[in-house]
Amino acid sequence: LLHQASFLQSAQRLDQCPPDEGLEVAFAGRSNAGKSSAINRLTSQRTLARTSKTPGRTQLINFFELDEQRRLVDLPGYGYAKVAKTKRNEWQQHLDHYLAERQALIGLVLMMDIRHPLKEFDLLMLEWSAQANMPIHILMTKADKLKFGAAKSTLLKVKSQLKNHPAPLSLQLFSATNGTGCEDAWNKLGEWLQV
Ligand code: GDP
User: Fold this and answer.
1) What is the CATH number of the domain that holds 121?
2) Parent domain of 97
3) No. of helices (H) and no. of strands (E), the chain
4) Is the ipTM of this complex over 0.95?
5) % helix, strand, coil for the chain, step of 5
6) Which atom of ligand 1 is nearest to the CA of 39?
7) HSE on the CB side for 101, CA within 13 Å?
């Protein structure tokens, strides 16, 4: 099903989103965490999510349709030093609004570069997941950048730091470059999207 993903529409605000029905899984991560690469890898489409470095382009919420009742959502990331604080606050408001209001949203996939886990943005997402009791699945991306032992120990460390998270939480290693963790991520998405 994931391979059928096709671009549906972009939205800057909640009222520009597709009708709030069916099931949606949202992808979030700091800029450069590897979110676009992960989405492209998971859908086996090289250009679905633009792996563009241009700040500003990422400020839109992008919807990808899997079928009539299921969507993936690419949320705006932040973390570019270049982006002004006011602009950043604006993004955050749109993001907050989407996260708080969207009924179709059933799970959040959070991408974190395995070399830079649990930054401010990630903590915000975790906080929101806790408050909303929203299931969260963490991809520790670019796992190929570390030796397997080091990657595994970072995973365990982060896992133990999050062991008291009140909402359903799971985490795994992932690499868009060599495909590590694809199977696990597919399984989680399948579970959430009921396919
Ligand atoms: P985004 O800003 O979160 O969408 O990040 P991108 O997907 O555009 O990736 C940011 C940079 O990290 C790009 O140069 C990618 O080629 C690189 N990258 C993404 N995923 C991986 C990965 O799994 N392994 C490695 N080695 N590099 C990656």
Assistant:
1) 3.40.50.300
2) 2-193
3) 5, 7
4) yes
5) 40, 25, 40
6) 7
7) 12
Give the distance (Å) from ligand 1 centre to CA of residue 172. 17
Ligand 1 centroid – CA 134 distance (Å): 26
- How many domains does the chain contain in total? 1
For 65-124, the DSSP string reads EEETTEEEEEPPP---TTS-HHHHHHHHHHHHHHHHH-SSEEEEEEEEETTS-S-HHHHH
Output the six-digit token pair for 127: 């906080």
Q: Could you list the pLDDT tens digit for every one of the 195 residues in the chain?
A: 898 899 998 888 888 999 999 999 999 999 899 999 999 999 998 878 875 445 555 568 899 999 999 999 999 876 655 566 777 777 778 888 899 999 999 999 999 999 999 999 899 999 999 999 999 999 999 999 999 999 999 999 999 999 999 999 999 999 999 999 999 999 999 999 999
- 26 C-alpha to ligand 1 centroid (Å): 18
For a ligand 1 pocket test, name from 39, 48, 51 the mutation site with the most ligand atoms within 8 angstroms of its C-beta: 51
